[in-house]
Design a protein that fits this description.
Cobalt-precorrin-4 Transmethylase, domain 1; alpha/beta; 3 domains; binds iron/sulfur cluster; Rossmann fold; four-stranded parallel β-sheet
Length: 288
C-alpha cells in the first residue's frame, strides 16, 4: 500500500504561534491559564501542562483572577468579553490569529456602514461566538435554512468563519443573493489562506487515492471539514486523533491511502499515524 501525504497539511502558523507564546509566558511569568481550547491534541496539551500552561476549556465557568496570567486563544474573542476580562485585573496575553482579526475588522467595517452583520460558520463555535459577540442582532448562517432568519430589508455585511470550506461559503452567499434579490449584500472572503491551501491540497490528493486519513481533534472544525470534503470527492475518509484510532479494515482493498491533518495537529502525531499505517499495511499484506 502506498501512503501519500497531502501537499499541504497540519498545523498552521496561527496555532503554532499561540502555543509558542503560551509557553513563553509560562517560562517568564509563572503559571498561565489558556482561556478555551488552544489546541485539541492531548499530547500537546500534556506538553503545555508540563511547561506550566493550564487550559480552561469552558470559558463560561472559568474564574479569571486578578494578578494572574491568561492567554486568549488564536480563535479570538469579542471586544465585550476582552473588556470584561481586562476589568478583573488579570494580565491577558492575546494570541488571536491575525487572520481571525481580519474577519473581526471586516465585520466591524460592515456594521459601521449600517449593514446587518452576518457570519457564515458553525453556530456555537468559539470563533463564531467571538465574531458575533459584539453584535446581539448578528445572524449566523450554517445552512440554507438559516437564510430565513435574516432581516427582510437591511443591507447585509457577510463574513465567514476562517475554517469554512470556501466553496460552501460561496454557495451560501449565492443562495442569499438568489433568495434576497433586492437586498444589498457586501461579502468579505475571510476564509484563511492556510485553510484554503489545505482544502486545495486535499482535492488534489483525493484524485490519487482510494481512502484518506485525516489526523485531528474530534472537536476541531477544520478537521471535520477536511473529512466532509474528502467524502464529497468520492473517497472514503476517516478521522483519527492518533495511531490508536486506526482500524485495519479501513485499508482492505486500498492500494493508495492519503494522509492529511487539521490545523492544530502537531507533526509528531502525523508521523506516528504514518508509521502505524505502514505497520497495518504490512499486517494486511501478510494476512492476505
Ligand atoms: S486556521 Fe487560519 S485563522 Fe485559524 S489560527 Fe490557523 S491560520 Fe489562523
Amino acid at each position: 500500500m502506498i501512503i501519500k501525504r497531502a501537499r499541504v497539511y497540519g498545523m498552521c502558523f496561527g496555532v503554532r504561534d499561540a502555543i509558542a507564546l503560551a509557553g513563553q509566558v509560562a517560562a517568564q511569568s509563572g503559571p498561565v491559564t489558556v482561556l478555551g481550547q488552544l489546541v485539541h491534541n492531548p499530547d500537546v496539551l500534556q506538553s503545555l501542562r508540563e511547561q506550566g500552561v493550564d487550559v480552561a476549556e469552558n470559558i463560561n465557568t472559568v474564574r479569571v483572577e486578578p494578578g494572574t496570567h491568561y492567554v486568549i486563544t488564536a480563535h479570538g474573542i469579542s471586544d465585550a468579553q476582552r473588556e470584561v476580562w481586562s476589568q478583573t485585573g488579570a494580565t491577558l496575553h492575546d494570541t488571536t490569529c491575525p487572520l481571525v482579526q481580519k474577519a473581526h475588522h471586516r465585520l466591524r467595517e460592515f456594521v459601521a456602514m449600517g449593514l446587518h452583520p452576518v457570519v457564515i460558520g458553525k453556530a456555537g463555535h468559539v470563533e463564531v461566538l467571538g465574531l458575533t459577540g459584539d453584535y446581539r442582532e448578528a445572524t449566523v448562517i450554517e445552512t440554507e435554512s438559516d437564510i430565513a432568519k435574516l432581516p427582510p430589508e437591511r443591507g447585509l455585511g457577510v463574513v465567514s468563519q476562517t475554517t469554512q470550506p470556501i466553496e460552501r461559503v460561496r454557495d451560501l452567499v449565492l443562495c442569499i443573493r438568489l433568495l434576497r434579490p433586492t437586498q444589498a449584500l457586501f461579502f468579505a472572503d475571510t476564509v484563511c489562506q492556510p485553510t484554503k491551501d489545505r482544502q486545495n491540497a486535499l482535492r488534489e490528493l483525493c484524485a490519487e487515492v482510494e481512502a484518506v486519513i485525516v489526523v485531528g481533534g474530534r472537536e476541531s472544525n477544520n478537521t471535520r471539514q477536511l473529512v466532509l470534503a474528502a467524502q464529497s470527492y468520492g473517497v472514503r475518509a476517516y478521522s483519527v486523533e492518533g495511531p490508536h484510532d486506526l482500524h485495519a479494515e479501513w485499508l482492505i482493498n486500498v492500494a493508495r491511502v492519503g494522509l492529511t491533518a487539521g490545523t492544530s495537529t502537531p507533526d509528531a502525531v502525523i508521523d506516528a499515524v504514518e508509521q502505524a499505517l505502514m505497520q497495518l499495511s504490512a499486517h494486511t499484506r501478510l494476512a492476505a
